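Bench log. Compound arrived from synthesis this morning; before running ITC I wanted a structural hypothesis for how protoporphyrin IX containing FE sits in the protein. Inputs:
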Amino acid sequence: MNTETKTSSMEVGSNCPYAGYRLMREQSAVTEVQPGVYAVTRYDDVKAVLSDPQTFSARIGDNKSFAFFGPSPVQDRIDEIMRDYPEEPVLMRTDPPLHTRVRALVNCALTPAEVRKIEPQIQTIVEELAAPWLQRGEVEFSGEFASLLPNAVTTSFLGSPPAMREHFRFWAHEVMSRFDGPQSPERQLEVAQHIVDMAHYFYDEIEARRRQPNGDLVSLLAHAEIDGDRLDNPSIVNVIQTFLIGGHETTTFTLGNSLHYLARDPDMAARLRNDPALIPTFVDEILRIESPTQSLQRSPTRDVEIGGVTVPAGALLLVYLASANRDENFFAEPDTFKFDRIGTNTSRHVAFGYGVHSCLGLRLARAEVQIALAYLLPRMHDIKLAGSDPISYINNFVLRGPIRLMLSYAPA
Ligand code: HEM
C-alpha cells in the first residue's frame, strides 16, 4: 500500500461543532452544558465511560419513549394500543445481563459470513439506485442516493421485497419522530398505532420464517439459539427496529461525507480510482473526522469522578465520540484528513462506539459504503460541489451529516 501522506483540512458545514469540542477538551474532562447534563469530550474518558456499563448505564430515564419530553397524558391509551408490542428495549438502552444475552443471540445472526453473503445484493442495489442519475452529470447525492441505499439494503437483508422500502422508511421515521420535539396526544396515539403496525408486519414475517427459514436476517434472528435460549417475537421486533434506525442516517451521512471530501480533493479521488484497495482506509478516516453519531447518552448509577470532576448519580452524560475522534492527545493533527493513519491509530477511532454496545452493524455499514464508492468513483470523474449553496447539514445535536449535497461530475 502506498503510505505517502495525503492530507486535506476541511472544517466546513453549518454549525460546525469541532471548535466547541476542542474548547471543552482543553478546559476540563467534563463540562456541565446544562443543569444536570454533562459532556465528556476526551478520548480516554470517552472510552473509559463506554467500557464500564455498570457505572454508566445505557438506560436513560424510565426508558418510555413517549415520555421523552415529559409524561404523556395518554400513556394509558398508548399502553393499550401497544399491548402486543410494549417496545421494551432489549439491545440499545439496556445494560448487562439482559444486554449480554440478547447481544450474543443477535451476534449469531450478524456474523462476518452473513454480511459477506449479502454483498452481491448490495452491489445490485447500488447499481439500481445509481442508474437514474449516473449519466446526468449532476446529482443531489444525499436525496438521490445516500439516503436510499441503507434503507434498500436493510429491506433486502430482512428478506422483504423492494415494495416494503417505503414502509420501513415510514416506520423508522415514526419511531424517531418522538425525539424531534413534544407531540400532541393525538399524534402520540397515531405514532403508537404505526409502531404496532410495524410489529404486526414483523410478527407475521417471523412466524413464516420459523416454519420455513430462508437465510435472511429475520430467519436468522428467529432461529438464533444459545443453550436453548431464544429471542421471543417482541424482542426480535425490537432488534429489527434498532437496525432500521441505527443503520440509516449514520450510513447515509458516511456516504455523503465521503463524496463531499472527494469533491473537495480531486487528487484523493484520483488516488482511490487508481487503487480501490485504499477505499476501506479512506472510509475509516472519514468516519473518524466526520463521525455521524456525534454523541451517545449514558447515566451514572452512582456519584462518580471523571478526570477530577464529580458527576452525580442519575445525571445525563453526553459522551462525545466526535470529539474523542479529534482529540489531539490521541490523533496527530486531528482536524486534518490523513489518508495513511491506518496501521497507526485511525482504526482506533470510536465512530462505531466502544465497549459492550459497539455497533453491531459496522461490517454492513462498511460494506455498503465501500461497495458504493468502488462502483461510483470510476463512473464519476471531476467531481465538484455544484451551485452556490451545495451542502446542508441535519439540524440535530446527536447526529451530524449532509442531508443535501449538490454535485457535478463528468460521467465516464
Ligand atoms: C456508518 C454507519 C454507522 C455508524 C457510525 C454507527 C454507529 C453506532 C454507534 C456509535 C453505536 C453505539 C451505541 C451505544 O453505545 O449506545 C451503534 C450501535 C448499534 N448499531 Fe450502528 N452505526 C452504523 C451503522 C449501523 C448499521 C448499518 C446497522 C444495522 C443494520 C447498525 C446497527 C446497530 C445496532 C443494532 C447497535 C446496538 C448495539 C448494542 O446496543 O449492543 N449500525 N452504532
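What the model suggests: Residues 1-59+114-147+248-412 form a domain with the Cytochrome p450 fold (CATH 1.10.630.10). Residues 1-14 have pLDDT under 50 and may be disordered.
ITC booked for Thursday regardless.
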